[in-house]
Amino acid sequence: MFNVVFVLGPPGSGKGTICSKIQENLGYVHLSAGDLLRAERERAGSQFGALIESHIKNGSIVPVEITCSLLENAMNLHKTANGFLVDGFPRNADNLSGWSKQMSGKVHEQFVLFLSCPVDICINRCLNRGEGRTDDNVDSLKKRVETYNNQTFPIIEHFGKLNMVRKVDSERPVEEVYEDVVKVFEAANQM
Ligand SMILES: Nc1ncnc2c1ncn2[C@@H]1O[C@H](COP(=O)(O)OP(=O)(O)O)[C@@H](O)[C@H]1O
Ligand SMILES: Nc1ccn([C@@H]2O[C@H](COP(=O)(O)OP(=O)(O)O)[C@@H](O)[C@H]2O)c(=O)n1
Ligand SMILES: [Mg+2]
């Protein structure tokens, strides 16, 4: 049974940044749904490249069958990991139901790390991210924020009702955010 921590928050809230620090220090393997989708988009012979790019540009969510299979394949490459940081997933109801269907019995969901940060700050971070992403522009960001508000935040609320959400204010400097995140992991792994 794989331990899984879902990492959610608006685009630019620092999910990738924090996950790479947890991976470095706590033995969890970082799996970014967005990174996996971008790699699949670039993979020679993929049937999904054009579909993925159109969702990414529009800030909409790729059908779960694609994303969940990429996540499961990646987990199976790291069978000895302490756990997995599933970054940027589940982002909507389709993601959540597809995951439950495909993964129940194979994973233990520990908690949801919710990185909370005001949207205007998040947008500025994305515009200055400097990774040359096709969706780090004002038009795509507007749509991504809408998707976050309308589809992803309700998923966080759903987990909130199950007492699974650990919220950390990620408006602060990375080191301060990370310090609180480590406390969350320590508390969870003592249980
Ligand atoms: N706490 C922070 N304070 C300032 N900048 C940050 C912070 N966390 C991340 N960033 C920067 O903001 C941008 C988006 O961060 P990233 O980790 O890619 O977020 P996400 O994966 O949630 O979109 C990156 O350029 C990153 O260096
Ligand atoms: N579960 C997911 C995660 C990302 N994606 C797509 O990939 C894009 C980029 O996701 P990301 O997680 O890399 O973006 P950030 O929140 O890290 O900025 C999203 O806007 C979606 O179009 C998806 O369709 N389904
Ligand atoms: Mg990211």
UniProtKB/TrEMBL annotation:
Gene Ontology annotations for the cellular component aspect, listed alphabetically: cytoplasm; nucleus
Annotated positions binding CMP: 95
Presence of the UniProt keyword Kinase in the record: yes
EC numbers: 2.7.4.14
Region named NMPbind: 32-62
GO MF annotation terms: ATP binding; CMP kinase activity; dCMP kinase activity; UMP kinase activity
Compartments, as annotated in UniProt: Cytoplasm; Nucleus
Protein name per UniProt: UMP-CMP kinase
